[in-house]
Specification:
Order of helices and strands: HHHHHEEHHHHH
Strand content: under 5%
Structural class: mainly alpha
Number of domains: 1
Radius of gyration: 20 Å
Shape: globular
Number of helices: 10
Length: about 250
């Protein structure tokens, strides 16, 4: 390879590095901070990277600025790295409200409005994993859930594809992208997939309380100190509310 070719290749590599997607850790939500104090399940920083890499360009566009303004006032003026960090924080808060940050959480609902038959498994729907998704969701949104393999495992096996944080979080990004980008629905709406994003529900209140410590770039006012006892009580109430309304 000649000198000019070598320089050309080096220039291409530098350009590729410059355009590489950048990620950064998201702050801890109140539930994450308190569970760390109490020795419970906490948010894994690796999950920030999973979420940030999964965020499609449309979710970084000015089109979503109005939707997230309540939680991240400066979203429109932030760079893409900070925007991805905001979404990582958002999904941490969502996972906290939905599953208490426990990737093995599995819930079967008995309320008529949600106790439906999963079209993939053929049995009553179970909400599973960090974002409480189902195998039917996997089929609808093209997620990496493998029911044929998972059905051969014990019911509570942590090895199920739907319980893997990467699969669950990436699927959750697809669900939200479909809602706010494809369907042009608000982030917070009574028809949101997650009850935690439906204003007026108790589970939404739990989620909103987790959104008080977003990345500094968001420019949200400083959160008030959270009392451990109050947070623990809120988490317990939220878990019950989420299970009752999903």
């Amino acid at each position: 390879m000649g000198a000019l070719q070598t320089l050309a290749v080096a220039a291409l590599l530098l350009a590729a590095t410059g355009f590489a997607q950048q990620t950064k850790p998201a702050p801890a939500t109140p539930i994450d901070a308190k569970k760390a104090d109490l020795g419970g399940k906490v948010w894994n920083p690796d999950w920030d990277v999973i979420v940030e890499k999964a965020i499609p360009p449309a979710m970084l566009s000015p089109a979503v600025s109005h939707d997230v303004a309540r939680f991240c006032p400066r979203f429109a003026s932030m760079d893409d790295t900070d925007k991805r960090a905001f979404w990582a924080y958002f999904f941490q808060a969502l996972a906290g409200a939905e599953a208490g940050l426990n990737p093995r959480t599995r819930v079967r609902h008995h309320e008529p409005e949600v106790a439906k038959i999963d079209k993939v498994t053929g049995v009553a729907v179970r909400s599973e994993g960090l974002l409480q998704l189902s195998y039917e969701d996997g089929k609808l949104y093209g997620c990496d859930f493998n029911w044929e393999a998972d059905r051969k495992l014990p019911p509570n096996s942590p090895d199920k594809s739907i319980l893997q944080p990467k699969n669950n979080l990436e699927c959750g990004v697809e669900v939200l992208n479909h809602q706010i980008i494809d369907q042009h629905k608000p982030l917070l709406t009574r028809t949101a997939y997650w009850s935690t994003l439906q204003p007026g529900r108790m589970s939404y209140r739990v989620f909103a309380k987790q959104m008080t410590n977003p990345p500094a770039a968001c420019g949200l006012h400083a959160p008030t100190p959270v009392k451990k006892a109050a947070t623990t009580e809120t988490v317990a109430e939220g878990a019950k509310a989420t299970q009752a309304t999903r």
